Amino acid sequence: MSYWAKETLLGTKWSGLDWEQKGLSNDQYAIHEDAVAAGRTEELTAGRDKALELIDRFVAQRCAEQGGATRSSENRRPPV
User: CA 78, CA 66: separation in Å to the nearest integer?
Assistant: First the structure.
């Protein structure tokens, strides 16, 4: 998820893919969105490099807390 969150923060051509194209579960999508938001905030105050580092830490922590965050996407929530 940190890969996709970084792609989104960087605005690459792959950043426009939706959660399903990225192969994310519901839980992973939620972490992705939170990581991007945290990264954007960090980028404003500390710069892009620090934002990318933050995304790695943020995703690792949330995935550890949620046991990998691989719950089914059967009841997908709509994008924000």
Answer: 21
